[in-house]
Amino acid sequence: MSIPTFVFSILLPHLLFVSQQCHLVLASEYHGGRWKLLQTSIGISAMHMQLLWNDRVVVFDRTDFGNSNLSLPNGRCRNDPTEAALKRDCSAHSVEYDVPSNKFRALMVQTDVWCSSGAITPDGNLVQAGGFNDGERRVRVFSPCRSRACDWQEIPNGLTARRWYATSHILPDGRQIIVGGRKQFNYEFIPKSIAAANTFNLPFLLETNDFGAENNLYPFVFLNVDGNLFIFANNRAILLDYVKYKVVKTYPTIPGGDPRSYPSTGSAVLLPLKNLKRAAAIQAEVLICGGAPKGSFFQASRGNFITALNTCARMVITDPNPQWVMETMPLARVMGDMILLPNGDVLLINGAGSGSAGWEMGRNPVLSPVLYRPDNKIGSRFKTQKPTIIPRMYHSSAVLLRDGRVLVGGSNPHAFYNFTTAFFPTELSLEAFSPAYLNANFDSLRPRIVDPKSMSGFTYRKRITIQVVITAEVSENSVSVTMVAPAFNTHSFSMNQRLIVLSDDKVKALGNSAYSIEVTSPRSRNLAPAGFYLLFVVHQDIPSQGIWVKLQ
Ligand SMILES: *[C@@H]1O[C@H](CO)[C@@H](O)[C@H](O)[C@H]1NC(C)=O
Ligand SMILES: *[C@@H]1O[C@H](CO)[C@@H](O)[C@H](O)[C@H]1NC(C)=O
């Protein structure tokens, strides 16, 4: 792990020279971030991750493949006669990782959480849905606490249908929708009310279900700014009015027709939402990158690892005549993650250069993240970043942290924990990728939020004032305020990931490097469902540390 740090320190004097000459050179333009190993082992492999408002990350794996490398505390064990591997299991399959102290503790799940989904409620609880075997109809709640006492609560029969490889999304009314899963061509809502106790058919999921490889799993779901849901599966998308249970729009197939959702496993983001002042002017754009060409899953099962897709497809989903625009990535990638950074850039990270998602099916790890700058001209949007030395293959994960780093973990392409195999042994480590904006060279540009420290009572359509300190001179139009929803990440998709650029900012110099920034909070729950967000002040592309705000 010392190699990337070493390279970085050699480059430092040169970078200092550059930044002294020209402050306006963007952080991402001339060097590629930094990697740090945080933990060699957290005892489990990070298949699913979610950051919570107390800066702790809930991590979980699966329960049905024997012992993990972490014991449950106080001699606790799980007795489960339905479990495939161990009927009595005294090891943990979930942990809570505390970011500021870099410490973790074991959590206890009662049933199998393998390949499940999740979202955060407006009051900040993690709601996880489904899984495998005895976990397939469970809903589980994790209520964050300041102590070390909180743990998973399970709701038996919380789901109407079995959900394995489904996608959860938070809705403007505070409920969650759970879409699809294996052999489930329907959706449902939680929590249940009498009116919505059932499942609702979605033939689109049947139409996008390829035989042999069901390329419609873990569909990419985004809440559009009009309140409808954009749902992408395989190689195309629809817009669903979930209130009237009606498909209101069918989008074109991505040119080339290759599948992008699981197990072809590209990734997708809703690009930053901005220009919020006039509702009619708000565009929503979706970017889908990488994946595996049609037939890769089948070929990989026969030992033929086809090169991954190197294309991204971008579409304005609010356009009356929407079309995909294709772009080429510097590196082909399957099983990558796409993470929205506080400054609106997209980080492509993790994954493989060939093969498919599935047991033993990936090859050629892609060790270098790639930055995508959505507002650059087409053709100059991608920048390759510094590589890690740890492959992050099938069942790896990544989430944005409040300090602007990206937490990376997991990778286990085997049906069991396997530390002896030559091909990508099970990874129990956690790393952090620090994008270039965290480099100390940019400290003079970096805003520091002095007031407030956090915000409750953050309501819709409200003028709010943030006080920051910025040492360097602040020019007009160089400051913005962004809000990022903490996402539930698994299988290369970040559910509920969303970045809103607040509008109407007025920057006022207060003297002594202090500034007050006035912005308007989001105008509606369709733009930003109620709940916890990380709020950042960004100056010349360099973000502050975030503060937690609770939008309500
Ligand atoms: C996990 O435990 C196994 C068996 O107990 C051991 O061989 C392996 O080295 C451990 N791995 C890590 C990363 O701690
Ligand atoms: C780990 O992988 C090796 C090599 O493929 C295999 O022989 C062994 O059975 C595997 N162990 C487990 C526990 O799956």
Automatic annotation (TrEMBL):
Its main location: secreted. Keywords: Oxidoreductase, Secreted, Signal. Residues 446-550 form the Galactose oxidase-like Early set domain. InterPro entries: Gal_Oxase/kelch_b-propeller, Gal_Oxidase_central_sf, Glyoxal_oxidase_N, GO-like_E_set, Ig-like_fold, Ig_E-set. Residues 47-437 form the Glyoxal oxidase N-terminal domain. One of its GO terms (cellular component) is extracellular space. GO terms for molecular function: oxidoreductase activity. It is found in: Secreted. Residues 1-27 form the signal peptide. Coiled coil: none annotated. Pfam families: Glyoxal_oxid_N, GO-like_E_set. SUPFAM superfamilies: E set domains, Galactose oxidase, central domain. It comes from the Eukaryota. This is Aldehyde oxidase GLOX. It comes from Hibiscus trionum.
